[in-house]
Write a structure and sequence with these properties.
The structure is a homodimer. Chain A is α/β, with parallel strands linked by helices. Chain A has helices at 9-14, 35-43, 48-52, 55-68, 82-89, 108-113, 123-136, 149-158, 166-174, 176-200, 219-234, 257-261, 276-283, 302-316, 343-360, and strands at 74-75, 91-93, 99-101, 142-147, 204-209, 238-239, 242-243, 246-250, 267-269, 288-293, 329-333. The model of chain A has no long low-confidence stretch (mean pLDDT 96). The A-B interface holds A 164-166, 169-170, 172-174, 213, 215-220, 252, 254-255, 272-275, 293-297, 299-301, 304, 308, 311, 334, 338, 340 and B 164-166, 169-170, 172-174, 213, 215-220, 252, 254-255, 272-275, 293-297, 299-301, 304, 308, 311, 334, 338, 340.
């Protein structure tokens, strides 16, 4: 039905298969740093959810960075909070503000009332996935995504972003039974949501555990990782005879890299505090790694961007090991691209990743 | 001149010497969660700097938590940004806001104009230290402190707090020469400032690298740790025949624990993402460890607080090793105490730390 994939480098790197170069994409690559994104957003009434819920607009902005840069994957334009919105919590984005829920989940009654939402309420997401797959026409693979159960719970309890996570952590420590109930519902909902994205055409999926890193050691394992693991275990991992890679990214998850590598995902995303070479040495034989340039590097000059990208590639090293097998590296930032990023620096990044990673694979330098 | 120290448990733990129990103090223990602090602040015109620059008020609020709780150390009431304020950057605290500098350091001219400040401009700090030492009358040791060179630089360039550290990281990556110049001045200023606090009576000093954890691996070593190391190397470590322990705390510094342990400090502070037992196994034979309860635990019940404190102590384990030598643990939070903390929970924490750590040292449980 759909056109054959012309560039499967990203999928191959996720699965630790041989690649000619290191694939690259950027978290939040369709976003406010692009003038064409801002133009489409104006058409959508300058509303984030206006963009995300309109299949034509969501398709348009998803493809915009691909027309500008030689990136190796597309990612669905959406938000991590669509699932709790479908649960009836009333998501909105104020002007210049972060997300807000009209009905945060803060007491036993609200927790008891939570349920896996009717997936028909998220039809706009699945329709966007199908539309984007069609529009991509095989250029690069499409990544679907969701927030992790814990990250969704943070927003659901706090009602928005937070500096200290006081409300959600108070519930976690005072009423762990309520927190576990929220996380169970979220895990079931996220699994169903991602499986529906795969049915609609997503060729890989990513779980954003954006706030896992705010948890204490011990609490992270019980309240974030255990539920991420449930999600991963419930995913369909093959579709139309092809493996559907799963990426898990815990911002600030460096301390738990070994445990993350055993969560069942094919790829672990890393933020910029992690040394790529050391991470590869620890877990590279179990999972591929994605990351991990500091998005702030993109505020410098194209020369600095290229130098830092090369340093990251060198830190990982040639992906082929001396025994002939391959480790996987998907180049990315360690967090979403910042709205103040100069456009030419993204081009410099993509070019440097592609050219230097090809050089790293040449017989003269590839020593494994 | 001053009264002999009645409780040196904190100092002994810092130096990995035998102790009867695990000492505890809390970052920001003199602060807004205490009603008596708020009352003194009203007397000072409801101004943070009004409190910090008035020797009598600074002394009063420093001692307030000691009158309420059996904590094992006092820490000077001040702010990490007094040094750049003395450099002429114009520190202020807006109502309900964080710190602001009227004259941020953002261009070459401003960087070139920076110099180590005349320490007489910080006389109010040293006078407070001397006054507090006198008022303590030997009850517990007094800790002096400063921000780290990097953390000061963040505020100096950004002009205040930041979400993305765009300005300071842009300078770091685009003009590392300017950033190094700021850090050199800061390192010299912080060293002189801490040495003057020691001369005034501080019995231990702590370097708060609050924003080291926002740096990428590699950048952290070059722009934060190298300058912290310079500060530590320049400190007087003995005063009146007594060792003056130095604590270094990098929030988010878990990924660099091994390198931090070699920075010359006696104690490394840990945030709550770090597993205490694993950290001890890695570096406990080189440095004492301070931390690391999530301050959010204090939002729960006294029972939960006690349980989590006990879990942290158990994670570290009995400080005496099987060969008879001692490792050091100073109990603390992994970050400053939150203003919404219930008072009774702090009492529960201190009691649990003291009683359980005594039990851990009993012959029945102390297996090293």
């Amino acid at each position: 039905m759909t056109a054959p994939l012309q560039n499967d480098t990203f999928l191959r790197a996720c699965l630790r298969q041989p690649t000619d170069y290191t694939p690259v994409w950027l978290m939040r690559q369709a976003g406010r740093y692009l003038p064409e994104y801002k133009a489409t957003r104006v058409k959508a009434g300058n509303s984030f959810m206006g963009l995300a819920t309109n299949v034509a607009y969501a398709t348009e902005v998803t493809l915009q960075p691909l027309d500008r840069y030689a990136i190796d994957a597309a990612i669905l334009f959406s938000d991590i909070l669509t699932v709790p919105d479908a649960m009836g919590l009333g998501l909105s984005f104020g002007a210049g503000e972060g997300p807000r829920f009209a009905h945060p989940v803060r007491d036993e009654a609200a927790v008891k009332a939570l349920a896996v939402p009717d997936l028909n309420k998220l039809r706009y997401v699945f329709d966007a996935v199908t539309s984007i797959r069609k529009a991509l026409n095989g250029r690069v693979p499409l990544i679907g995504f969701s927030g992790s159960p814990w990250t969704l719970a943070c927003y659901m309890v706090e009602g928005g972003g937070s500096d200290d996570y006081r409300l959600v952590k108070t519930m976690l420590y005072s009423r762990p039974d309520l927190m576990h109930r929220i996380l169970e519902v979220n895990a079931a909902a996220v699994s169903a949501y991602l499986n529906a994205q795969i049915d609609a055409g997503a060729q890989a999926v990513m779980v954003f555990d954006s706030w896992g890193g705010v948890l204490a050691d011990g609490a992270f394992q019980r309240f974030s990782l255990d539920y991420t693991r449930r999600v991963v275990a419930a995913l369909q991992r093959e579709k139309d005879g092809k493996r559907v890679p799963c990426i898990v990214f815990t911002k600030g998850g460096g301390p738990w890299l070994d445990e993350l590598a055993d969560c069942g995902a094919d790829v672990i995303g890393l933020d910029w505090t992690v040394n790529l070479g050391q991470a590869r040495a620890r877990v590279g034989d179990r999972v591929a790694l994605q990351g991990n340039l500091d998005p702030a590097v993109l505020f410098a000059t194209p020369e600095v961007v290229a130098r830092e990208a090369i340093a990251a590639l060198d830190s990982f090293g040639p992906p082929q090991r001396s025994d002939g097998t391959w480790d996987g590296h998907v180049f990315n930032l360690g967090h979403g691209i910042n709205q103040h990023t100069p456009l030419e620096n993204v081009a410099a990044l993509v070019d440097a990743v592609h050219s230097h990673s090809r050089a790293l694979r040449s017989p003269h330098t590839a020593s494994g």
